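Ticket #4471: structure export looks truncated?
Reporter: QA, pipeline team
Priority: medium

Steps to reproduce: submit the single chain below to the structure queue and open the exported record.
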Amino acid sequence: MGERPSSAKERAEVLTSAVNAAPRLIPIIAHRYIPEEPYQAGNPVLSVMHSDVIYYGANLEEYFTNEFEGRYEISETRYIPFWSEMVHRNS
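Actual output as written to the record:
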């Protein structure tokens, strides 16, 4: 992880680099996204509001059930570099 950069500019550069290296997110609706990688079925759906990142479904089917039936049950999720780490930091 390393030391925290001393200036705001340096911190912004480190953050920008990390986000740019993360799998891109495909918008579903509002602040719900699904990672484009890996290129296979079963990626989790994320709710992303600034630095607040949570799972909203272990996959697209579970997301729709949670979203439209008013549940919030998350099965075991696939690990997605960067994004899974953000979820765990918010837990």
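Status: closed, not a bug. The export was complete when the record was re-opened. Leaving a note from the reviewer for reference: Strands lie at 25-29, 32-35, 45-49, 52-57.
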